[in-house]
Write a structure and sequence with these properties.
It is built from 19 helices and 36 strands. The protein has 803 residues and is α+β, with helices and mostly antiparallel strands. The strands form ten sheets. The protein has a four-stranded antiparallel β-sheet, with no helix packed on it. The longest helix has 17 residues. It starts with 11 loop residues before the first helix and ends in a 15-residue tail after the last helix.
Length: 803
């Protein structure tokens, strides 16, 4: 195919006559430099793509519901022409991409969402400027591109996986290129090679084609680990091709070698939707993102970790970027989903380098810490010892030779590396805890007890105690397990008791003046409140303590040893023996705030050197004679505090563990407690904890635990992590054709698919196969077979190996 040939030589005067009627404007940059300011205008609808004319005086904006041309004046945008005409515009006006011809000022091409490729002639006298209509693509056209020097050559790439080359003098395409792949996302003619164009695909491949050979591509290579959304040839260096993809990377490839060579790579923070080289600047390119990030970045590929400049005006995703003139690096035009069109001046861009932290900090895989800072800051540390060669604990200096062409400040940095001890590197406790913890499937109390036992066995007493406290806080007292012999609290069984009896107590059992101790353990009953306060040996009030003592009945003190010396089998007999007569209870009287103190205790209280003002107001009674005791036949206090009473404390506890780096504990408690605590913590914090824990689990290859945590999570952003890439395409092992139904029988050859080579039954669970001979079967069967034989169980003779 040769585009220089003309089929109708006699019609050439008419064609060129029509072209002469098109309005022509000389290149503005030829006479004077482009001038203007940062400005914007509101559009009628979101823009999908923009393109600028050759003389940089007009810009076309295209989208699903907008197709207009704006003039670029000194102070503002001025609407020049609305190409979307008619009462009910057709889908041909719904544009996914637009391009303005760089040789013919009145020629436009658009890619329609209905699969049509449309050209527009602005020189037409009618309102409808539509010129040619090509409807050969079956799905949405993603990209159109004019040849940089050939007037009538137009290239398109579609979602159907085909690229078509059109001669605008003909009514149908002259060449069709099949990438034998998924949809085409971008096509770009080379600026230097007349016959070459590049195409990017959704499977991560980039292909180079020669327009003279539509049967096969010249070169293909995998550029990204995901769809490649855009590509752009360098305007000056003929061999450089920039690509951007969903993997958040921009890569620069050298195409002059036999194999495509990656020479630069820029890591961005979101999927890259557009990439454009900056005119007159060899190392600079501009990018915008497909989602999440609304900013436009200009990168210097030699410094890929921080943008050279940033434009932050848009409030929604930027959909199209273009430099205003191919020889002017100071003006950038952009369109966005926020329905605005911007002209950015480079002098108004923000420079992230000016706001960047000049220090760097990073942890290594085994806990080593690296710290980089300016040499001037490090040299100011007078306590730092001289640098001994080979010792990694002290800084390593790097000096850069000055390069007058660079636009960066020249500083020398010092790198310090600090090694961690071997003991601190050990993460066995994390792996064992992750494997042994139970997060569901059992009652709450059992989960807490099991996890507390696991933590205790791994020598983590604080974590073990935390699980025990959580069980006490949130369990129903009727379901509390019976405390063991090592239980530190005597109060464990009290909520379950309906009655108890107290023995007669003498003076000697409650007062030991030879040791100077006054036992203040007591029971206090208030009107309307049946609360028992019992202190054990570790927290009992002793002489000299400032805590207030509490008392029962106002004139009797009970020793805790006698209080809990209860013999249940003799309970009935004791109640009968020590129950007071009915007349011993007078009518209920009002309890005074400050009852009178017996005279024999006032002297004792005055003699105590530790008596404080508060203690003087309460009674410390030590009976000097025996009393008959009372049988109580009702619960002494309410069963337990409501669960929400502890929620603030638990929330602070989880935050503490997370801040200490133990996200394992934070996430485990979050899952076990479930709705009891989930509403107390905001979703963003929960998501951050989950992501951190899942990342740690996957680093240690704990895939099953990671999947269980994802499954038990209630955060929508977490539960979807194991829902992607779950489709498994199965081919029949006999006829090699895809299985179209969901059963185990191929509907073509009517044979069972996935048959085990050992037992000859259908495999409905885990299936393992040899990548050499493709035979396989049940995982356990194949493992047992290969223990005794290295040959394939199917009898094909292949030496299979299980790793």
């Amino acid at each position: 195919m040769h585009f220089g040939q003309r089929e109708r030589p006699r019609g050439l005067p008419l064609l060129f006559g029509a072209m002469e009627k098109m309005s022509r404007v000389t290149t503005a940059l030829g006479s004077s430099a482009i001038s203007g300011r940062t400005m914007f205008c509101h559009l009628d609808a979101p823009a999908n793509a923009i393109s600028v004319c050759r003389d940089a005086t007009q810009v076309v904006v295209a989208g699903r519901n907008i197709f207009k041309i704006y003039g670029l004046e000194e102070e503002q945008f001025v609407e020049k022409l609305n190409l979307r005409v008619g009462r009910k515009p057709s889908l041909n006006f719904s544009c996914a991409d637009v391009m303005w011809h760089q040789m013919e000022e009145n020629l436009l091409a658009t890619a329609a969402t209905n699969g049509a490729v449309v050209t527009w002639n602005l020189g037409k006298p009618s309102r409808n400027k539509q010129d040619q209509l090509f409807t050969e693509h079956k799905r949405t056209v993603n990209k159109v591109c004019f040849h940089p020097t050939e007037v009538y050559m137009l290239l398109s790439g579609s979602q159907d996986g085909y690229m078509k080359c059109f001669d605008l003098r003909k009514k149908e395409s002259v060449s069709t290129f099949s990438g034998q792949s998924e949809s085409v996302r971008d096509v770009q003619f080379s600026m230097k090679d007349y016959f070459t164009f590049a195409a990017s695909f959704e499977n991560g491949n980039v292909q180079l084609w020669d327009i003279r050979r539509p049967d096969r591509y010249e070169r293909m290579f995998t550029a990204h680990t995901g769809p490649v959304f855009c590509c752009d040839w360098h305007p000056d260096d003929r061999g450089w091709l920039a690509t951007g993809g969903r993997d958040k990377m921009v890569k620069v490839w050298d195409m002059t070698t036999n194999r495509a060579k990656e020479i630069y790579c820029v890591q961005t923070i979101a999927s890259v939707a557009r990439v454009k080289w900056r005119p007159e600047r060899k190392w600079h390119l501009a990018t915008c993102s497909m989602m999440v990030d609304h900013n436009i970045y200009v990168w210097d590929v030699r410094r890929p970790f921080i943008p050279f400049a940033t434009f932050e005006e848009h409030k929604d995703v930027t959909t199209g970027i273009v430099w205003r003139h191919q020889h002017d690096p100071y003006f950038l035009l952009s369109g966005s989903k926020d329905s605005t069109l911007y002209q950015h001046m480079f002098k108004d861009a923000s420079r992230p380098v000016d706001r960047a932290n000049p220090e760097g900090l990073c942890f290594g895989l085994f806990g080593d810490l690296a710290f980089a800072a300016k040499e001037s800051l490090i040299s100011g540390d007078t306590n730092r010892k001289p640098y001994p060669g080979g010792d990694r604990r002290y800084p390593i200096f790097f000096f850069k030779k000055p390069d007058l062409t660079e636009q960066f400040a020249h500083v020398s940095s010092a790198l310090s590396v600090f090694e961690s001890s071997l003991e601190s590197r050990c993460m066995d406790w994390f792996v064992k805890t992750a494997r042994l913890y139970l997060l569901g499937g059992k009652p709450f109390a059992e989960l807490c007890d099991h996890n507390a036992k696991v933590a205790k066995e791994l020598n983590r007493p604080q974590v073990s105690t935390t699980w025990t406290m959580l069980r006490l806080m949130f369990s129903d007292p009727a379901n509390l397990s019976t405390p063991g012999p090592n239980n530190i609290s005597k109060l464990g069984n009290l909520p379950l008791m309906n009655s108890f009896s107290m023995k007669e107590m003498g003076t000697e059992s409650r007062l030991d003046r030879s040791k100077g101790e006054i036992r203040q353990d007591s029971i206090h009953l208030e009107p309307g409140n049946s609360l028992i306060n019992s202190n054990n040996d570790e927290n009992e009030e002793t002489e000299g303590s400032e805590g207030q003592a509490e008392y029962m009945f106002g004139d009797a003190e009970l020793d805790d040893d006698d209080l809990y010396s209860i013999e249940l089998e003799n309970q009935a007999a004791e109640e009968q023996e020590y129950t007071l007569p009915q007349e011993a209870f007078p009518l209920r009287h009002e309890i005074m705030d400050n009852p009178s103190v017996p005279e024999h205790l006032q002297q004792d209280k005055a003699d105590s050197p530790h008596a404080s003002g508060n203690e003087a107001e309460v009674m410390c009674l030590t009976p000097t004679e025996s009393f008959s005791l009372i049988a109580i036949s009702q619960p002494l206090f309410s069963t337990h505090l409501p669960a929400h009473f502890f929620c603030p404390v638990v929330r602070e506890m989880l935050s503490h563990y997370a801040e200490q780096g133990d996200v394992q504990m934070a996430v485990s408690v979050l899952i076990v407690l479930g709705d009891r605590i989930r509403k107390e913590i905001d979703d963003l914090t929960q998501e951050h904890w989950y992501m951190s824990y899942i990342d740690l689990l996957q680093r240690f290859e704990l895939w099953n635990v990671s999947n269980e945590v994802i499954k038990l999570s209630t955060c929508s952003a977490i539960t979807c992590l194991n829902q992607t890439s779950t489709t498994l395409h199965v081919n029949c092992s006999n006829c090699k054709r895809p299985m179209s139904n969901r059963g185990w029988i191929c509907d073509r050859c009517h044979q069972c698919a996935s048959v085990c080579a050992v037992c000859h039954h259908v495999v409905k669970g885990l299936f393992v196969w040899c990548q050499g001979c493709s035979h396989g079967g049940h995982l356990e069967h194949v493992m047992n077979w290969l223990k005794s034989s290295s040959h394939c169980p199917a009898g094909c003779g292949h030496l299979c190996e299980y790793t």
